Amino acid sequence: MAGKYEHLFVRHMGDSSADLVNEGAVATGVPRPAHIGDAFALMRAEDVPESKIHMTYSWIGPTDEPSHWVNEHEHDYDEVLIWTGSDPENPHDLGGEILIDIEGETYSVTTSGALYIPAGLRHCPLDFKRVTRPIRFSALSLSGDGAYSSDEDVPRDASA
């Protein structure tokens, strides 16, 4: 029996690949590598109109080949990137290595965890250097309107 709050649940996560304008084929025109799974919407205004956040997740499968995933960009809202390994016996071990740039500085990530990105902070590219076990990757956009957007959504003015 559905209650009065049923409309707040997401019971079927829709494909949110097209929402993420800086990632994979949407950003580069190159099909995503087979080890990078579909992006699913955990929460967004498109599915729950009252939502003030946009949250997705993807599974990243094992690969020996380094791969580029997300282009450099920034948002006018805060964002949290979350990555977790898949070994329940060692939850801190990511099972791979992620490289991410923040304002031009490259950081290596090999443990499960998260990154808080304040509004206006230029970040990415994000690349997978190696993945030995599946990694769950989530992005939580605190956009206020439940939508994902970035400065890469519109053509940039080269004279600015």
UniProtKB/TrEMBL annotation:
The name this protein carries in UniProt is: Cupin
Q: What is the originating organism of this protein?
A: Agromyces mediolanus (Corynebacterium mediolanum)
